[in-house]
Amino acid sequence: MRIVNSSFRPNVRIEDRAIEFVFEDIYLPDSLSNPEGSQGFVSYEIHTQANLVENTRIENTAHIIFDFNPPIITNTTFNTLSDNCGIVSTVDDIFDSIRFYPNPIKKMLFIDDNENRMFEKTIYDIYGKKVLSFTKNKIDQSALASGLYVLKIDNGKSQTAVKIFKE
Description:
Shape: globular
Order of helices and strands: EEEEEEEEEEEEEEEE
Radius of gyration: 17 Å
Number of domains: 2
């Protein structure tokens, strides 16, 4: 495991198949008074097990704990290993037929939807600032700086979001 980037330096503990990132004494302001300052992040790389085969699906869920409060459990993301394009990410809800690849992105981001629906897509930086909006399913991302982004997809009735990383 290697930390690629983080908003604060975490202490890291790995136990079985779980990674724990602990951010001590960071004192984030509340999100109502300071939305940008209230956010933190960590991005990391892990090596896959050598015996995984093509199209192996890897699930990831985060449990975020602030102080002594109950955990906030994130949506589960899925990554599918592929020799053709790196990692393909999908989300588990009404948008589950949508695939995003490659992730991390070098230049182009491809979004495949088996049902050929038109969704509004918006990319945000880690501070919540809108970077790009589009409806196309093939987008040139070469102008984006390296780092972590959030891709929000809206079908007019509901929304979902996935993390994407630009190399």
